Amino acid sequence: MVDERQQQQQAPLPGASLGHNLIPLVNELQDTLAQLGSFSSIELPHVVVVGNQSSGKSSVLEALVGRDFLPRGSDICTRRPLVLHLKRIPADHQEYAQFLHIPGRNFYDFNEIRTEIQAETEREAGGNKGISDKEIHLKIFSPNMLDITLVDLPGITKVPVGDQPSDIEARIRTMIMSYIKNPSCLILAVTPSTADLANSDALQIAGVADPDGYRTIGVITKLDIMYNAGKFMPHRSIPLRLGYVGVVNRSQEDITLNRTIEYALAAEEEFFRSHPVYSQIADRCGVPQLGKKLDQILIHCINTVLLGLESRIGATSGSLPEELAGYGEIAH
Question: Three-state SS for 233?
């Protein structure tokens, strides 16, 4: 068990010591493009989280953010794409969040953020489990986060509930593919340790978009209920060049007792350090290791994308005078 002293000595959240100048710059570009509705014309690196409804992907996302703020429930909770822009700020600044659909308002209470996500979801998708492909954009400013853009998508589900159409699985898969087919997208394919990797829906759909496994990280959740680490060792049938990372999700008891993400991260670190099998592969275990891997890979992806970005922007801007001329002279 993690006592209070251990929790206070725990290292900062996963992204606290990470981040480079390029990532905040790209996040600002993504903000601007999102407001202009131009995501399709210039694609910048971002991370998309995919998995089954019960895979634990929301817990992975919250652990990376370091805050408990996503809707929870027994059925589908993520019903609209949530584009999450995380921005590091100086250590002496207060943590806050902003929604794109509520300009000028700062949120300081993460319970209020959860409530607003639920309300905005229902405004577009209704109150009875329906889904929508209209994005919710949320910025979180904190001293203890990665500079990163994450996209949380509805979990893959096979049985429709509530107002969901009979082809709900196909619709969700189409929505996921519209994001992960982008070559500059990094895919977090989340699978619980209790599932067979060969039958993982997350790895299957990631494999369609990224058949060579160059931009997919396999995330194996709930390792505290699975003794054998072999599931995310190099996997012959589903090789991923970026590899697999194993994590421990917050338990239902942690959530019920309102234990913090910091507490959960400290408990996860203790679990992997003391486990007779997982301690031997500690470099592939834990949310902090996942955060470091994401940071390093994103820097490489951004460098690659920015090489061609200047010429693409130049070509786009160069065509504007000709387009404007086609409208003729302005009448006085």
Answer: coil
